[in-house]
Design brief:
The protein has a 6-stranded mixed beta sheet, with helices on both faces. The protein folds into 2 domains: 75 residues; 135 residues, Trna Endonuclease, Chain: A, domain 1. Helix content is 57%, strand content 15%. With 248 residues, the chain is α/β, with parallel strands linked by helices. The protein has 7 helices and 6 strands.
Length: 248
């Protein structure tokens, strides 16, 4: 008989009852913490092993000297390759949190804001459902000036794919946005290949100024459709044992 962890079961049940109740930048922040933890654990293991070898075989032992070299090499690799990745992911998480806070400032009675949505093929940073329609928001944390006409084609394709995915599961028309959290954009509001490019400071104003296309009933129906799609995706991603725990 398989024993199910009550805490894990409770967590799965909460996720199932509110499948889209995630925080802005939750996945990105978890990735940053995981990378930092793995880095610290790796360095800790090497440091402990080096000290143990030095104590057991002496400071002039080839084993100790080899472990010292391995520790120094690891520190070089971490500073040269891993830390820049962690810092980049950290900036991305901060950007998502910043844009998420801006979206949460929209009137709660009229808007439904969803963060960090995964439908099995990538992650959508934010989805805003309100009177002007449905918007997917891909957040970018580039610090420098951005020329709207030179935004990378891969970024536009990513935003397009997100819009199509949400349109497919909700049946609604979706406008994809790329929002730069820190950068100055030379032509804010420019539309390229169906994707609107905005700086974060103009996001809320842009959404509020759009003409009304959805009733409150439409908004709630679209939100329910999205929640259902996310719940089904999570069910498909669970192991049979986890599914059984939710059905018991």
């Amino acid at each position: 008989m398989k024993i199910v962890d009550p805490k894990r079961e409770r967590t799965m049940q909460q996720a199932d009852s509110d499948p889209i109740g995630r925080r802005a930048g939750q996945y990105a922040r978890a990735t940053v913490l995981r990378l930092r933890m793995r880095t610290l654990i790796g360095l800790g293991i090497l440091a402990v092993a080096t000290a143990a070898l030095g104590k057991a075989f002496g400071l002039h032992s080839p084993l100790f000297l080899g472990s010292e070299v391995a520790l120094l090499a690891s520190m070089f690799v971490i500073s040269r390759y891993i830390l820049p990745v962690v810092e980049r992911r950290d900036r991305g998480a901060m950007a998502e949190e910043q844009v998420g806070a801006l979206l949460e400032s929209l009137p709660h009675g009229r808007w439904r804001i969803v963060h960090d949505v995964s439908l099995g093929r990538g992650n959508v940073d934010h989805i805003a459902i309100g009177p002007p329609g449905v918007f997917t928001i891909e957040t970018k944390s580039h610090p420098g000036p951005v020329r709207a006409g030179r935004v990378h084609g891969g970024t536009l394709a990513q935003a397009q794919a997100q819009g199509r995915a949400i349109a497919w599961v909700t049946g609604a028309q979706v406008e994809p946005l790329v929002v730069f959290s820190r950068a100055w954009v030379d032509r804010p509001g420019t539309r390229r290949k169906g994707v609107r490019i905005l700086p974060a400071r103009m996001l809320v104003g842009y959404l509020e100024q759009r003409p009304t296309t959805l009733t409150q009933q439409d908004i709630e129906r679209t939100h329910r459709s999205l929640a259902t799609a996310v719940r089904q995706q999570r069910q498909r991603g669970r192991t049979p044992g986890e599914r059984w725990a939710l059905l018991r």
